Amino acid sequence: MSSTSNPKFEHQNPGVSRPTRLGTLLPVGNQVSQIRGGAIAGSTLGGAPARGQEVHASVAPASSGNTSSVSVTFHRDPSDANFSQAKVYVSGYQGNKSRILVAASDSGPITFVLNNSGASISLIVQASGNFGDAPIDSSPATGVRLPQSDAGGFGTGTNTGLTLTGTTGALVKKSGTSSLTTTDLSGDVTTNSTPAATVVKIQGVPVSNFPPNISDTLRYDGTQWAIMAGDPRVIGFFGDGQDSIGVYVDAQQPVTSGSKIAVAATATESMGIKHASAASASVNSTALAEHGMGASAGKFTFGTCYRFTSRVMPLNNTNARYWIGLGKSAPQFGSPTYASNTPNTALVGFRWTAGTDTNWQAYCGVSSGSNTIVDIGVAPSFTASTLFEIINVGGTSTNYKFLLNGSLDASISSTLPTASENFGQLLFCADNLNTANVCSATFFWSTLMLN
Q1: How would you class 232 by CB atoms within 10 Å of its CB: exposed for 0-12, middle for 13-18, buried for 19 or more?
Q2: Residue 251 resides in a domain
Q3: Residues whose CB falls within 8 Å of the CB of residue 333, separated by 6 or more in sequence, listed in order
Q4: How many separate domains does the chain show?
């Protein structure tokens, strides 16, 4: 546009010529100075840059071991004169759904460090220029998932002799060596390669490194998961449903007293035998089933007993006393030894006495009469059988655990029979508290696992 005179202007300032080109600053003092817009309508110069394309992201371990290095690549039009840099926003990091600016650069890849939070995050790349930014809502984006673990998700190199690198889906990737060290793989370990990870503990309990033989199994011995013969050494006896008592492993026949009536198996109970006393007063045990272990010959001791198990259902909630456990004394047919709340013999067992006990009692006593009694807190059932278990922890006779129906209910570590002391009975017995009443119970079976 050529310069022309402005009659109005010349009238106000005669003899002075003033240019009026587009974008020119008007003279100060005559008109307020103005800066014209950088972009002219219809022009592609000096405006916002075009959006980027093909955004990709990758995750690699950072040097500290609990952070990750995130790299973002993108493609832009090299002919776009309005592009100045790319801004990277993250959304969903550490529970924040807002878009947070984390890095910017005029070229890729753009790399930054994030904590290993385990979050799935979105990465948005926004093109930026000196005259504005591309709309962020329509900017290209991608997503990645950050690793997460107690150690940060990637190995830190603290295990000497190993090269540890992050691998998608794996806790640790091994290279350069043929074995792992003994520690520092926490949590569950899954491996499908050789060498496999060596399991040294199960639930924090050490595992024996003793070489196994065919048919061996693991059994806790009080200190570790030990390698044991798969067929445990077990003795026991059972009610065979034919009004007689069966026995296995040990040759001695059990001793019984009271009448015996066969009890057929049901949908919830195995076959058994109902033992019942006469309806006459007696100071002796009047209904019992005892498997004599030949204590006088020293065949078994309390220290050789690992686990006693028995299933019994008491039937009388008045005028009755019941014992289930391991006793030293010889077979008690017609004897008052166990017709007492505190037998004067070595005994580890369960006791319930009508009028004295509300719940089952855990009992440990010695031949001098000293005893420890613990209320288990579980009342007897007179309509269903109960599973009674006594565990000699470690086979050392320093602690006995008492379980009802599989639940640990008591533990006793005082007034215990010595490990070398002979015991004579796997016993179930009952008496009628010297009253003229029937005392009865259904006996199903008893077993004893030896070391």
Answers
A1: middle
A2: yes
A3: 255, 256, 257, 285, 288
A4: 3
Of the candidates 400, 242, 228, the residue with the CA atom closest to the CA atom of residue 325: 400
Paired tokens of 68? 């990750």
**Structure tokens belonging to residue 9:** 């202007």
Question: Cβ distance 419 to 306 under 8 Å?
Answer: no
What separation in angstroms does the CA of 35 have from each of 23, 25, 38, 44? 7, 8, 9, 19
Q: Which pLDDT tens digit goes with each residue over 115-164?
A: 888 788 999 999 998 888 888 888 898 888 888 754 444 444 333 344 44
Structure token pair of residue 79 = 């002919």
305 lies in the same domain as 359: yes
3-class DSSP assignment, residue 9: helix
Same domain, 214 and 244: no
Tokens coding 102: 């984390």
| Domain identity same for 245 and 196 | no
Per residue in 286-324, pLDDT tens?
Answer: 887 777 655 444 567 888 888 889 999 999 999 999 999
Q: Per the omega criterion (within 30 degrees of 0), is the bond before 61 cis?
A: no
* Helix H or strand E segment including 12: helix 7-12
Instruction: Give the 3-state secondary structure of residue 268.
Output: coil
Q: DSSP letters along 50-111, please?
A: PP-EEEEEEEEE-TTSSEEEEEEEEE--TT-TT--EEEEEEESBTTB-S-EEEEEESSS-EE
CB atoms closer than 10 angstroms to residue 290: 26
**Number of Cβ atoms within 10 Å of the Cβ of 155:** 23
Q: Cα(first)–Cα(last) distance of the chain, in Å? A: 112
Q: Which residue, 434, 438, 277, is CA-closest to 340?
A: 434
Question: Across-strand partners of 90?
Answer: 100, 123
User: Tokens 């290993």 belong to which residue?
Assistant: 116
| Amino acid letter for position 241 | G
Are residue 280 and residue 364 in the same domain, yes or no? yes
204 plus 301 within the same structural domain:
no
Strands (E), 293-406: 305-314, 321-327, 347-353, 361-365, 371-375, 386-392, 400-404
Instruction: List CB contacts of 93: < 8 A, sequence separation 6 or more.
Output: 100, 114, 117, 119, 121
Question: Please, which residues bridge with residue 305 across strands?
Answer: 450
Q: The pTM is what?
A: 0.55
Tokens of 64: 């500290």
Q: Which domain holds residue 399?
A: 234-450
Same-domain status, 397 and 442: yes
